[in-house]
TrEMBL record:
SUPFAM superfamilies: alpha/beta-Hydrolases. InterPro entries: AB_hydrolase_1, AB_hydrolase_fold, AB_hydrolase_sf, Epox_hydrolase-like. It comes from Sphingobium terrigena. One of its GO terms (molecular function) is hydrolase activity. This is Alpha/beta fold hydrolase.
Length: 289
């Protein structure tokens, strides 16, 4: 099933430890947090707005824009970046009065969730991780472009003449989608318009490191004890399937599902297949349930 995204719901703003989060909530049931990727113009709705309504049939789906994205706070981040985001998401859970949740994550958001699960294990029931890059070393090093493919793409997108609709289409087609002919123009437009946000433009123009200090999470992954599904695209442009196989062995309860004819955003390219795979994983009873 190929779906075009609908306009994002208005959502609401919440204050968490002095920073503002924007989030969209749909459905009712077990709390399920969706953490989006880090590409230019990404938001929770741009990454999960097609598939989240399927989960919302019987789940409380919470889609926050990560800090420095969407309508959330754009202030610089200091200190180890994944630890900072993990602590901030825990603060969001506290404000929402959520003791424990399932996490469904893409790319940047998945690395945050892995760090969170390692440092706050009692707050995570399960993890679904797609296209994330928490480890830079080990048997698969060096990673493509030294692990900088996403950052290099961001520099190209914001560089030169600056963002354009065509540059956004090319970025998504090259790095995030397997079949560019199926890329909905609504997705390109949504991402492009968000990438023009003054706060995001200002962050992209800074010469320092406003996103925080980079972290390798090899040690933290060994502490992730919750059931963890790595759901990967066979044709992921950043990391081929041998990488998530390594990750699935590093966490304590890892498993891997490879979906064909998909790249980095399989939840958008193949939403029904993605939903059925992840829903089956979520429906498995956990010892704490």
């Amino acid at each position: 099933m190929q779906l075009a995204p609908t306009p994002a719901p208005a959502g609401r703003l919440l204050q968490v430890d002095g920073r503002t989060y924007h989030l969209v909530e749909i459905g009712d049931g077990p709390p399920t947090i969706f953490l989006h990727g880090g590409g230019p113009g990404c938001t929770a709705w741009s990454d999960f707005g097609v598939v989240a309504p399927l989960f919302a049939r019987d789940r409380w789906c919470i889609l926050p824009d990560l800090l420095q994205y969407g309508r959330s706070d754009k202030a610089p981040i200091f200190g180890p970046m994944w630890t900072f985001h993990a602590c901030s998401i825990i603060g969001l859970l506290d404000v929402l009065n959520i003791a424990r949740a399932d996490f469904i994550c893409n790319s940047w958001g998945g690395t945050i969730a892995l760090c969170l699960a390692a440092q706050y294990p009692d707050r995570v029931r399960s993890l679904t991780i797609t296209g994330s890059m928490p480890v830079f070393y080990g048997p698969l090093a060096p990673l493509p472009e030294g692990g900088r493919r996403g950052r290099n793409a961001r520099d190209i997108y914001y560089g030169g003449e600056g963002p354009t609709l065509e540059k956004m289409r090319q970025l998504i087609a090259r790095l995030e989608w397997y079949d560019a002919d199926l890329l909905p123009p609504e997705t390109v437009e949504m991402r492009y318009r968000q990438s023009l946000d003054p706060g995001e433009m200002a962050l992209a123009a800074r010469s320092d490191s406003p996103r925080g200090e980079w972290q390798d999470l090899a040690a933290e992954l060994t502490q992730v004890k919750c059931p963890t599904l790595f759901c990967w695209g066979m044709n992921d442009a950043f990391l081929q399937p041998d990488y998530p196989l390594m990750l699935s062995r590093m966490v304590q309860r890892g498993q891997l599902h490879i979906l064909d004819a998909c790249s980095h955003h399989l939840q958008e390219e193949r939403p029904e297949h993605y939903y059925l795979i992840v829903r089956s994983f979520l429906d498995q009873p956990d010892e704490q349930d």
